[in-house]
Design a protein that fits this description.
about 350 residues, Rossmann fold, Zinc Finger, Delta Prime, domain 3, 8 strands, about 60% helix, disordered C terminus
Length: about 350
């Protein structure tokens, strides 16, 4: 039986199957699914657990058959956990796994196989099909950038909290696909969120460790054209441990809004109409208008290009130091350009 990770908990509540194969190259999700099976096995009376590591020096596949043959010696049920890091048992392992299933078919023990990524060809093999027929197989796929917001939102909801869209995007930018870091951040936010509501300010409080130099103050000063003050605050944020990805997120959010507003203004809208359509808060309208009055499409596209260089530097595929690129981004945002508002 093929199972999706999100369906595992419900299946375990209904029935504990004799075999579970959990495979993939996303360690956190593989670990969480494996833990669910282990807990269900304990609840069902598997008081003993035998771990067999196929990747360990001196491993012999005969250990699996010995485990199957010794089941009748135990009064209590047992969880047999086979670790298969390579995801491929080979010819001998394939044969042994099928023999194990034949020997253990009438027993009460549970077999949990925790494997590395299994390729498509292996899913058509006899050993894989035998395991699938005897129990459940779960293939864990990495959470990509497109799916990360949905995944994180589900984790936040499962923790009994609600997160707004801006805070969710900041959290995604911060963890950069590292699911373990994401789970750790959600745990930290549980301590900081008032009434379970996570906002941008909640996330920045967690990320910046209540830094003396305010992330949004830095951005607002840049929007007002105060380059020196904004740079001082950016350096303060760096000194107090703020990550460059967080500073970039705060700046890029405003630059994108300005670029969209400039396109609308060039198309005939007034600055206030354009900014209102982009849901800019009234108390920030003057800040954004001040920045919009200094920048034309060319300068805003240049700012987006600079932001892309910062992102590339953070992620290791572009040259230079991220903080140096951020310095230039702040100065450029605060500088005057030559457009005229319509």
């Amino acid at each position: 039986m093929r199972l999706y990770p999100e369906k595992l908990a419900g299946q375990l509540q209904q029935q504990l199957l004799p075999v579970y194969l959990i495979s993939g190259d996303e360690p956190l999700l593989v670990q969480e699914c494996s833990d669910q099976v282990r807990q269900a096995a304990r609840n069902a009376g598997c008081t003993d657990r035998e771990v067999i590591d196929a990747g360990a020096p001196g491993f012999n596949w005969s250990d699996m058959l010995a485990s199957a043959s010794s089941m009748s010696l135990f009064a209590d049920r047992k969880l047999v956990e086979l670790r298969l890091p390579s995801g491929k048992p080979g010819a001998e392992g394939s044969k042994v796994l099928q023999e194990y299933l034949e020997i253990s078919g009438s027993g009460d023990d549970v077999l949990l196989i925790v494997a590395g990524k299994i390729d498509k060809q292996s899913t058509n093999s006899k050993w894989y099909k035998a395991l699938d027929a005897a129990g459940a197989t779960l293939q864990i796929w990495p959470v990509d950038a497109k799916d990360l917001p949905r995944w994180l939102q589900q984790r936040v909801r499962a923790a009994g909290m609600h997160i707004d869209n801006d805070a969710l995007q900041l959290l995604c930018d911060r963890v950069e696909g590292n699911l373990l870091a994401a789970v750790q951040e959600v745990e930290k936010l549980k301590l900081l969120a008032d009434d379970g509501e996570i906002t941008v300010h909640t996330v920045t409080a967690s990320v910046s460790n209540n830094a003396r130099y305010n992330l949004f103050g830095m951005t607002d000063n840049a929007l007002q054209g105060k380059a020196a003050i904004s740079l001082k605050m950016l350096h303060g944020l760096r000194g107090e441990g703020t990550e460059p990805a967080v500073a970039l997120w705060a700046l890029l959010r405003e630059i994108r809004t300005l670029h969209q507003a400039r396109t609308a203004v060039d198309g005939g809208q007034s600055p206030q109409q354009a900014l209102s359509a982009l849901r800019v808060w009234k108390n920030r309208m003057s800040l954004m208008q001040a920045a919009l009055s200094r920048h034309d499409t060319t300068s805003l596209v240049d700012l987006l290009d600079q932001a892309a260089r910062v992102d590339g530097s953070i992620k290791g595929y572009a040259g230079g130091k991220a903080w140096d690129h951020l310095d230039r981004l702040v100065v450029t945002l605060a500088s005057a350009s030559t457009p005229a508002l319509r």
